[in-house]
Amino acid sequence: MDDRIDNSDFIVNAGDRDSVIEYEQNRICTDTARKFRECRAAEGITQAELGKLAGVSQPNITRFESGNYNPSLEFLVKIAAAMNRKVSISIDNRNIDSDTVVSIGNQGFDSIRESGYFYIDKTYFIKEWWESGDAVTLITRPRRFGKTLNMSMLECFFSVRYRDRRDLFDNLYISGDAEYMKLQGTYPVIFVSFAAVKQTNCLDAIRQIKVIISDVYSQFPELYTSDKLNDGQRKLLASASRNMDDVTAQNALNDLSSLLTSHYGKKVIVLLDEYDTPLQEAYINGYWQEMTSFIRSLFNATFKSNRYLERAVMTGITRVSKESIFSDLNNLNVITSMNDRYADCFGFTEKETFAALDSFGLGEYKDSVKRWYDGFSFGHVNDIYNPWSITNYIDKRQFRPYWVSTSSNEMISRLLREASVSTKEKMELLIRGYDIAVSFDEQIVFDRLEYDDSAIWSLLLASGYLKIANIDYPEDSFEPVYHLRITNTETLGMFCNTFRLWFNRSDTNYNRFVMALLDDNLEEMNIYMNDVAMATISSFDSGRHPSDKALPEKFFHGFVLGLLVELRDRYVVKSNHESGYGRCDVIIIPKSADDSAIIMEFKVHSAGTEKNLQDTVNSALRQIIDKNYDAELHDLGFEKNHIRHYGFAFEGKRVLIGKQKNR
Questions:
Q1: Which burial class, exposed, middle or buried, applies to 481 when counting CB atoms under 10 A from its CB (0-12, 13-18, 19+)?
Q2: What is the tens place of the pLDDT at every residue in 383-402?
Q3: How far apart are CA 123 and CA 20, in angstroms?
Q4: Fewest beta carbons less than 10 Å away: which of 13, 87, 291, 490?
Q5: Which three-class secondary structure state does DSSP give residue 537?
Q6: Which runs of E-coded beta strand occur in 391-500?
Q7: CB of 209 within 8 A of CB of 197?
Q8: Which three-class secondary structure state does DSSP give residue 68?
Q9: What is this structure's pTM?
């Protein structure tokens, strides 16, 4: 605490970026207690009255004012608010006030700083990136993790357009380095975002890229009156329009680099945000090959053969394979979530998150915030929090799935729905809270996602829905084995909602089937299960011509994921679980002794050995008895009359369900 404290504001200095904030272990100085005491006296209230207003104990106020109690920031915020004052926490030489406005969705660094909105200082990223010396850097992080804001920060720091705006960095980490501040506002910077390239066909997507590039040109009006350009360069300037041809567009950022270099006498910095958005949309909408061909030439001209390029940064969610678009870029350094570099530059660390919660009077909810929004890991740095969810929670003060609600998750849903049986079985384990062990290539080959089962784990990890719990390096294998788990409560909700939506169409009657199952209404179970199969079974077909057996089996495992979600409050749902002398397809174990346990066996009708679906049902029911699948339930204390057996027979989209009688 220092002389900046007056009777209006209280500023708690919690140290610099490298210190650990532990308020309870750092005694508040006598001067701080004195100023709080003087403020209370000025308000004309007693310690007992202040304690009642603030909701804290009066003895602790007495001890604090006498210098014998080291309070948490939450305590200070409460007693300051009771006296109509605010507390600022000073970290990394900047303050977070208890009444600071949280600007949701604002990704402009200059706008946030000019308005004094809530901001966590990430300006050390400027220094770390510049000192890396990398010519072209690709950084991948999940969406809404501050990538665009950091790119805006780089533009504000380096761009000549902000040469008179050193004030934007006042009291931030980078401002304390005089040598680095000499770089501020000294480079021509080209900042491009592909966030808006979400068209459903290739022609419109490329048109949108041309619009974006044309708009970038318009941000440099000085070029149109520059006396440093020759006639040939003026023609290049004029050729960059929304109607330019593909080749002109692919070379346009290279051309702009040459024009800016001529005008300013200095090479350019290129910033490309959301580089992979056009590629994801191309995959989803079926024009992958055409888009990668266009992007490959654009990137080659911009980042490889561009002799006017000083440095470049690209950001995105996924690491698209080098063979797809980066085959010519041997100067590219890729930094994924598995790398240590820049690990704490994106997202909020636990230190930053807890300090912010304290400053907004939300310190008592740290455990819940950690359960909901913690769990991300970058490199060896754990306990990274999602900025979008944290800022929304601070603003709205309600626990909600803010981050997962910002995307339709269409691609994830489709890939999981059409995935192999093995993939769905692993998802069942994840939903039940277990880790899974898988190997995969960190690079994502989008056009092989449907054929390579391991690729989906790479995508889910890059997207932030899964995290690495541990990595093994087997001696007999060249591939590491990754132990993955669901990131946190919020992402668990995303998976549950995804599986629920597979069946929650109005024409499926899935919920009615679940109710009929729990009510042991066999007639309604048959009616509604046939509705479910008729409406949804084809959606589990990836188009890879599965066998007559494979498609029902994939549907069945999707069905089990749906049951996991729908019944998780009342039941434990297990599939392919070992019990007795084999593995039963589904075992549903109630959490209450008042409910019955359920065993399900699924079989595909065999025309060669079974006359009809009833024969198939009977075969399934016999297997439950012969394999003694009741064994585990008996061990858990379930009596025979509290265990129900169902056999499911599939033939195409037809389903027949039968029940074991006389039980």
A1: middle
A2: 999 999 999 999 998 998 88
A3: 19
A4: 13
A5: helix
A6: 436-438, 466-472, 481-486
A7: yes
A8: coil
A9: 0.77
